[in-house]
Amino acid sequence: GGQGVDERYTEAWVMANWLENRGVARERIFLEEQATDTRENLRFSWEIIQQRGLAGPVAVVSNTFHLFRAQALSRQEGLGTVQALAAPIPYPYQIPGFYLREYCSVLLMFFQTIF
To answer: Which of 18, 20, 48, 22 is nearest to 33 (CA)?
Structure first.
């Protein structure tokens, strides 16, 4: 993903470094640094997958609270059914707020598909 106004680096750059530090070869990592939200991140990532002719199942890695919506958006963006992998939440005290935000986002997504 991209870089928020309060972020020093793009989400893609941070995750690429995290993966590389854990043994993933840099040539196996493709950065998508333009997205400003989950839908764009899925769309732009799918374009990279198609442009590079990558094969195999697609997985979405995110926090547990975000995986339902990420999977729904992936279907809307043409990726079909993707695997969902939960990442740890670094600040557990924020979990209630995250779930509330996600609940509202799912409702908004639902209403956008109806109207």
So the answer is: 48
